[in-house]
Structures
1.
Amino acid sequence: MIGSDEIQAILEEYDRLKLRIGMTASHSALDICDGAIEEGFPTVAYCQKGREKTYSDYFKTKRTSSGRVTRGMVDKAIVLNSFNDVLAPDFQQQMRERNVVYIPNRSFTSYSSIESIENDFKVPMFGSRNMLRMEERTEEQDYYWILEQAGLPYPEAIENPEDIDCLVIVKLHHAQKTLERGFFTCSSFDEYSEKAATLLKEGVIDQASLDGARIERYVIGPVFNLNFFYSPLEDEMPKLELLGVDWRFESSLDGHVRLPAPQQMTMPAHQQIPEMTVVGHNTATIRESLLEKAFELGEKFIKASKEHYDPGIIGPFCLQTCIDKDMDYYIYDVAPRLGGGTNVHLNVGHPYGNATWRKQMSSGRRIAMEIRRAVEQDRLDEVVT
């Protein structure tokens, strides 16, 4: 793991009045760029060839002669053959010469190995470098481990498929769409066996992933992704903020639920089992009597992160939850970085973030604001790793 002393030495060479915000051009890059522009930082998006036009053309910034942005939010789009090329030493050197602070998103950790990010990516990153690994369900200390350490509620695991006695969700990777999910639901061992056989035959899943899949009780209730922010710099007000909430559109699941049950029953076998590929998000709010419970979840997570991942969580994190009929939360996934649904609050801000800061406050802008505050207080080393 790249140590704090090494990052501090790199920061010593930075011109802190000329910082740039960099990120992998996918996932939540637009939110990051928009927030950075709002706070006065130039932006650099590292794109993959064939996927660059969103950033290089359509959301490219236009500035006046004085530097004021009148359109867009991406100042510079650097096109790479692969997202992973950001790890190349020459690109890292370019980033350091440009005073880039890199904002990790899920695309960064999906297209580049965690080992390389931890040990070889010698660019200051906003957030908790040492917590990114926990997002992988194949890790011994994955997010379920820290949820257990924190005493946080999560769906009960079922170790043996033969013990399935209620509705469950089987979590594993998609065999063909390697970055997507091959999840499926079932309520008995017979249904598990039948659906698994169908998905194996269709090539949606493979046997190795099925053997290593996590089976957990399915919590019946609405899904809320809680987009939190933890500020190490805040000295007067609470350090934890709930900026906003989002929920997902999933294909083909959302198409299935629009069909009457009789129509679903007559579909051919290859269409009957919906896939759960995230294709979009929408905003939400939570019943006010449930907000304090949400903050309690965040506080417990922060405490556990400090105990097990020194210095603990920094900046944005997302607890993905379900709320059951008894109004109890269950955390089914954790993002120890900027969540994937924050683009829904792009430019307009999160409802709770806006109310907290009395201005439009998206996750991307909150990140940029924290970096600016860190520079002004000479505490940049406290928010980058």
Note: The chain has three domains: 4-128+373-382, 143-150+221-357, 161-217.
2.
Amino acid sequence: MSILSALRLSRAPVAAFMAVGLTWGCIAAMAPVLKARIGVDDASFGLLLLGTAIGLSTTLYVAPRWDRRMGRWALPAGTVILAAASMLPAVAYTVPLFFVILMILGATSGLTDVVMNARVSEIETRTSRSLMNVNHAMFSVAYAVSALLTGAMREAGWGPGAIFPAIAMLVLATAPFQMMQVAVRDVGNGPVPRLPLGLVALCGAIVLIGFMAEATVESWSALHIERTLLGGAAEGAFGPAMLGLTMAVGRFSGQAVAARLSEIGVIRIATALAVAGVLIAAAAPTPFVAYIGFGLMGLGISVIGPMGLALAGRLSLPSQRTAVIARVAVIGFIGFFIAPALMGIGAQTFGLRWAFACVAILLAAIWPLSRLVREGPIRR
């Protein structure tokens, strides 16, 4: 199936993936401004980013109920709320307020995230087509566009009070395209089948590491380029933009590669690329070399998360597949929001170069985990 036909088939969740990408691309490119405005060090800034994880944890319980109650309106209504929340960083002048705003962003983003992934899964089940990679690719495209646009606005002299509302309007513009009919859900009272916890733990760990690596670069690449390598605002914004662009390329091509190799094979090749990329970025003497590193890393980590989710689905029983994928995704989402805080502590203690080197070590752990998934008794 061509990319265009896949995009047409899943156009409603595609629009939602773009909304989330626009939101976080702007926040990543504005990280140096937000950090300087509240006047905190690297470790404190990283810990403040935990606010997004706290907000996200609430949606893990709220999102399923929101989806059941709102039905076809759940996705566009959630995006409207996200658009409103995405304007709040413009008024984040103090540390407590910044933390609360991050909690709100985590909650609203997580609400949309859970529902849009459920919509993709629903369409895949109905059509027997693989659509997850192309949807995640559009997140990466929107993320990169938002980061570049934000960098351009910063270079033109725009402040947070103008940049965040401008991106929020783009987020809001995606909402009308997110309406779709949803399947009637059977919420019976039968016993819940026992899940294969070993499979959830191992695949969850792979997705967790992939999302953690992605989140560290999204949140800290601009600071690395501007502070460590003395780049300008536009150069700093191009760091997360390069990651987003190459992740989009990796995800668009991921289906073709996966057709020739197993999920484990794709994950291992992707891990090797990502490790090489982050080491290049860590040791880079100039922003240009860092872009090469972030680009290689983007190609690698782009498919680790989606392939980890696909592996979990393939190895689970059909009756348990949705529950298994949901739990693996939750583990990954938590890592996505915890990682920037850990990166901040590492940057404060060892410097950004060594902190990025630690990301390479973390990624390398995927290799032994992938062996356990393939060889271990994971169905119990």
Note: Residues 3-177+194-375 form a domain with the Growth Hormone; Chain: A; fold (CATH 1.20.1250.20).
3.
Amino acid sequence: MDEFDRKVIAAFPGKSVRKDLTALMKKGANVPTYVLEYLLGMYCATDDEETIKVGLEKIKRILSENYVRPDQSDYVKSKIKEEIMILNVSGRTDIIAFYTQWFLNRLDEGFVDVRNPFNPNLVSRINFNDIDLILFCTKNPIPIVNDLDKIPKPFLFHVTITPYKNDIEPYVPSKTKVIEAVKEISKQIGKENIVIRYDPIFISDKYPIEYHIKAFEKLLSLLNGYVNKIIISFLDEYKNVLKNKNILQYKTLTEKDYEQIGINFSAIAKNYNMTVQTCFEDRNLTEYGFIKEDCLFHELAYYLTGKKYKSWKSRKGEKCNCVEMVDIGVYNTCKHFCKYCYANYNENKVNNNTLNHNSNSSLITGTITDKDTIKVRKIWQNGNNMIK
């Protein structure tokens, strides 16, 4: 590999492909070239031969698990009607930070129950045998680091790390400890399976643009070699945000602010061979070098599971095209008490709900009663249509 090739790899992280590797992998593989090149860009876009070797083995495993020979067409047709589901753990609370033992107990039992937030006596039962993939979303992955081998399904991590102090995030643990946990998880599952979320971003006198740029640089320097992707978003004025406006003291972002964030964050990410993107934003900052991609995009879900999913129905018509997921969390159960949180809007309810938590219950908070109606949640694929 010459100097020009190295410059291309540095300039386009995750996008450059060695054609000799494409030819090598194509031999005997019943796979479209663009699929191979996508995987090579994801796992082998480097000049480090050892990393390439590991990446090629990973690609071979992905292909062996997700692609079949032409003579296996009947097998594929039978698989099309299988139940498929992606579990979100969780966008409503931080299950890993506060309820890891409960989650592990649910894995052992084989199912989890979730109350309908609009009809509390209607309970959805989700069987883990129906799950294809799990997305863990957390600010504190420390409690589960030593139990990853107990998770019987493919899984990804989205870990949120922000630079705010305890005036904004009163009970989020030391960011240094969280970063060490991220490194350990990356070692166990691969850096392509763990994403860092630097969100939400808000600007104030205490947390100006310059503060964020410096913090972003430090964060990526500490995670260099352990993650590939960073996702950012900007503060939204949820109910809890408006209630805490005097604490947050946030300012309206100007076009100049977006430009500074776009230019600086993009340059920093590029310097560490990472990509950066926005989540669910009007301003995706692609003009400054951000990539345009969904947080859990369809191609990634397909490569991990070999199955196709529809887009998130609850966000239809909005700016999100992530695959649909089933969230097993409950609002007003997160004890981080972040002042910008959308999922906590009543601290008294949080305290009551956590008091009612039983790690042996099928529910995060409370227990099943005689008044509850339990319905098994299933999502399956029939041809090209998803039926719920």
Note: Confidence is low (pLDDT under 50) at residues 77-83, 381-388.
4.
Amino acid sequence: MHIFINKIIMENNRLMILGTNEYQNPLILRAKELGYETHVFGWPHGEIGETTADVYYPVNILDYDLLWEECQKLQPCGVVSICSELAMHPMNFLLRKMGIPCNSLETETLTTNKYLMRKAMKEGGIDSPNFMLVTKDMTLDEVEESVKDFNLPLIIKPCDLSSSRGVFKIENLETLQEGMDYALGWSKTGEAILEEFIEGPEYSGESIAYNGRYKLLAITEKHTTGAPHYVETGHRQPAPLDEGTYKKIEQTLYKAFTSLSISYGAIHPEFRITPEGKILFMEIATRMGGDCIGTDLVPLSTGYDFMGMVIRICCGKEPDFMKIREPKLAENHYIMSMADLEEFNKIKTKHPEMIWRHSNMRPVLDAPVLKSADRAGYYITIK
């Protein structure tokens, strides 16, 4: 079967895409622009990708047997997803079955479990804050004893989630139980990582890997709501950094990627630069950054066809680093309040040329924004 599929890969343009939501939709559209026939799989939730796909399959993408059955029928040239942590597992499963090079199961496990990731990076010589694993059967006394030598404040996160879900900053030990309950309540596995909070501005380094070789495409400056939940409010590319800092980040990223044995595809590392100039990671994902970082900001700010690169890799081909547009300053802005919505309407009226694109705007919540899904919408500007 592997030989037959690999032969088909060289002869057809059918591309299997996992995921249908608005953050996956740019991938569907870009694939169509590049001449692929898009076969898109996902739960039937009325998402935009269900209508923009050439062919839509209302399939549970976590049903691996059914996915492989459909893949064998379709005989696609590749399988791809970009922003969904959930979709990375079935994507790599199918790529392995098809014989297309991708990240190992070990790398996949390390990069989707925050505690195992932190442990592997520390063993690989990467600077790390003090950290520990917290499980739902641990008592407050046990955890307090384990963190007695940690520096406050602390931060706790579910080991198995992304998009700011379950994140809680612990300013003092009086709020440790509250933080544990919050993070563990979100976790599907009942595990969280508790670690020293890293001070300093936050960035991410949008990168690509092919056969164990790395290329840093862009550094993103991040803005968040701050404590206690750190929901992202916007991003800017390129980040305003000097050349020396950029080179230091690049070297540190590549060392961290190596410690996790990352070999193929998009990489989204999140890190802070401390007041002392240390580069300390929060986490590393083997996918594009969500929130339009990979789909829009990277091509806008660098000219690189990031989605095209990922598609090629997921079809067993080397990425193409040819630039497809003139680089600009690119930013995305999230609607968190009525003031944010008013600012968007003001820009749209007075400077429409600055708006690259925007989402449909939902009603602004009259409540604290606790996770990314609570935001009312977004818009992307270029200068």
Note: Residues 12 and 77 are 6 Å apart (CA to CA).
